[in-house]
Amino acid sequence: MASSRDKRSGSIYKFRDALIKKIEKKFEEEERLLRLQREKQANNEPSEEAEPSALMLTCDDEDPFADPSNATTADVVKVLRTLSVQIEQLSCKQDTFQHQLDETKSRVTKLDRRLNEVLFMAEAVKDELMFDDFQKATEQIVTPVPWFEFQAVSNETELKDLDHRLATDEAYSRNLTKWLNAKILHPDPNHRLHQAMEAVFKREFLPSCSWKGRAKPGQFRISMSAQKFIMELFRVVGSNRFITISDEFVAKFFIKKLPFAKARLNLKGYRSSVCNRKS
């Protein structure tokens, strides 16, 4: 059964979709109206056949340039006037077309701005609801385990022991998950994974690890991907009430973080990394 939060989120998406459809419908009506106006104007404009006298010389008119020796000043003026009328008509058509084009662009810009405003408003409301509900859910459900203690992993033996215990001791796995969720309150999966990494591993240990255990000749690296149950722990803790991350998400996180583990040794104290994701 859908919760009140799910119903509110669903109503927001329905409201957004309805507004988008309404804006798209109005845009289509505007385009159809402009097209009809252009067709009507084209039908009302005099064609070259309807007024041949305004666009070209008639059969009764003698071409003054057929025999330049017979052309008079009046003939030349008459031809120039005809050309002037043609140029003026073409200029008028060009101005009309440019005006219609500018009007269409203006309408499209306004509709696009309205659509962006609707999308931004819907996303802002959704994010606010999600964050508020996440905080309430965290306060109500995630409570620290008062007697549970965990020491951060500092060597390969402790790493393998932790992976084995997570695989065989369900109660320990559940308590460690609760312990981490009580420490990590940020809803973003990348932030959650980073804070979990700070809590589970000591910084001095991570430079000796790589995702697949690959290293330069003469060097040794511990394979983090081989610790299946620790990675499952990170997948669970990195997820939140609204987003369930995948194994691939966790793998990409460690592939990105482990090569810089040595550089992070110079950081003093704890600093939560900010994920600069491209928009």
From TrEMBL:
Residues in DUF4806 domain copies: 147-234
Protein name per its UniProtKB record: AGAP005478-PA
